UniProtKB/TrEMBL annotation:
<dbReference type="GO" id="GO:0031177">
    <property type="term" value="F:phosphopantetheine binding"/>
</dbReference>
<keyword id="KW-0597">Phosphoprotein</keyword>
<dbReference type="InterPro" id="IPR020459">
    <property type="entry name" value="AMP-binding"/>
</dbReference>
<dbReference type="Pfam" id="PF00501">
    <property type="entry name" value="AMP-binding"/>
</dbReference>
<dbReference type="GO" id="GO:0005737">
    <property type="term" value="C:cytoplasm"/>
</dbReference>
<dbReference type="GO" id="GO:0044550">
    <property type="term" value="P:secondary metabolite biosynthetic process"/>
</dbReference>
<dbReference type="GO" id="GO:0043041">
    <property type="term" value="P:amino acid activation for nonribosomal peptide biosynthetic process"/>
</dbReference>
<dbReference type="InterPro" id="IPR020845">
    <property type="entry name" value="AMP-binding_CS"/>
</dbReference>
<dbReference type="InterPro" id="IPR045851">
    <property type="entry name" value="AMP-bd_C_sf"/>
</dbReference>
<dbReference type="InterPro" id="IPR010071">
    <property type="entry name" value="AA_adenyl_dom"/>
</dbReference>
<keyword id="KW-0596">Phosphopantetheine</keyword>
<feature type="domain" description="AMP-dependent synthetase/ligase">
    <location>
        <begin position="1"/>
        <end position="305"/>
    </location>
</feature>
<protein>
    <submittedName>
        <fullName>Amino acid adenylation domain-containing protein</fullName>
    </submittedName>
</protein>
<dbReference type="InterPro" id="IPR000873">
    <property type="entry name" value="AMP-dep_synth/lig_dom"/>
</dbReference>
Length: 365
């Protein structure tokens, strides 16, 4: 699919949503589709209509799908049935760009993460959050030598925001794969690949002796990066980065270029981001002393959908900047002498599996 085809089809879908469902700025539209070019068309179509998209993975358990759809109360659900309806009348809608109706503070998307109460919680990301993140991406990867991004991440996981929107903002190619298991099938190529995934996937590729010579840029996020993974990579031939950040701060909050196994940290804040390491009294910890990682800045989400009390508990007033907020991550870390941050684990019993946050409370329930 070309950029022109993508733009025209998403314009038609946006016009269809406005005309058929009177979609307004900031309203919610669910997307429940298998991975194909129509998934990208649908995401862009929803955004162009002015609505915010709510991703739902068709491989999720039925109970989780039902909860997300009920909690979000989406005005429309774009599934295979809705796509079929749209295709029947697509020719009636203009391929031209629609007039924008969004403001920076409007919702762009809601991603559901695991919740300790037994149900996932919807993180509300605004357009201005995503735009700030993408500006940093364009700056950080501006000189990176690649031409194709492998889109391997579910749209329900925020690494997909980087894979989809950063790629499209550069005019480069995104190759949408079914999942990370398909990566080896797309590495025997003359293309220069950017791979954005979790460290456990990279570890599996290395264990299976997969040739990574086509990978020119490797981003790892969502889990701590093992030393043995870095030892097995040529970090001078390819650009290797460790990226850290919760969904509540729009994908990535800190970054580190890794050169060898002695330099594995979560790095420094990305642009327009503040990182504090605080003690139990919300006082700054000295360098070298472990505390809770708290985040402020332009990427900070609006809060959790329909969970005002939890939002107030986790998104609090920034004690160092009047009128600003910060997010209490529950992650532990410490400043090192060189100004980077070392990740030290969790305050609670939350775990991550292949980059996905899992609250034991959700499983127990």
């Amino acid at each position: 699919m070309t950029y022109r085809q993508l733009n025209e089809q998403s314009n038609q879908l946006a016009a269809y949503l406005r005309s058929t469902y009177a979609v307004q700025a900031g309203e919610l539209v669910g997307i429940l589709l298998k991975r194909s070019e129509l998934l990208i068309v649908s995401i862009l179509g929803v955004l162009k209509s002015g609505a915010a998209y709510v991703p739902v993975d068709p491989d999720y358990p039925e109970e989780r799908i039902a909860y997300i759809l009920a909690d979000s109360a989406c005005k429309v659900l774009i599934d295979e049935v809705e796509i079929a309806k749209f295709k029947e009348v697509a020719g009636e809608y203009s391929k031209a760009n629609l007039a924008g109706i969004n403001q920076g503070e409007d919702l762009a998307y809601i991603i559901y993460t695991s919740g300790s109460t037994g149900h996932p919680k919807g993180v509300m990301i605004e357009h201005r959050n995503a735009c700030s993140f993408l500006h940093w991406c364009l700056e950080e990867f501006g000189a990176a030598d690649f031409d194709t991004v492998l889109g391997v991440t579910s749209i329900c996981f925020d690494l997909s925001v980087f894979e989809i929107f950063y790629t499209l903002s550069t005019g480069k190619k995104i190759r949408l794969l079914s999942n990370a298991l398909a990566i080896p099938l797309h590495l025997n190529t003359t293309e220069k690949i950017l791979l954005n995934t979790v460290p456990s996937v990279v570890g599996n590729l290395l264990n299976e002796n997969i040739d990574l010579s086509a990978v020119k840029v490797l981003n790892m996020a969502g889990e701590p990066v093992p030393h043995q993974t870095i030892s097995a990579l040529d970090c001078h031939r390819m650009e290797v980065r460790n990226l850290y950040g919760p969904s509540e701060d729009t994908t990535y909050s800190t970054f580190s270029r890794i050169w060898d196994e002695t330099s594995i940290t979560i790095g420094r804040p990305i642009s327009n981001t503040r990182i504090y390491i605080l003690n139990e009294g919300d006082r700054l910890q000295p360098a070298g002393v472990v505390g809770e990682i708290c985040i402020g800045g332009a990427g900070l989400a609006r809060g959790y959908l329909n969970k005002e009390a939890l939002s107030a508990e986790r998104f609090v007033a920034d004690p160092f900047l009047i009128g600003e907020r910060m997010y209490k991550t529950g992650d532990l870390g410490r400043w090192l002498a060189d100004g980077t941050i070392e990740f030290s684990g969790r305050k609670d019993d939350q775990v991550k599996i292949r980059g996905y946050r899992i609250e034991p409370g959700e499983i127990e329930t």
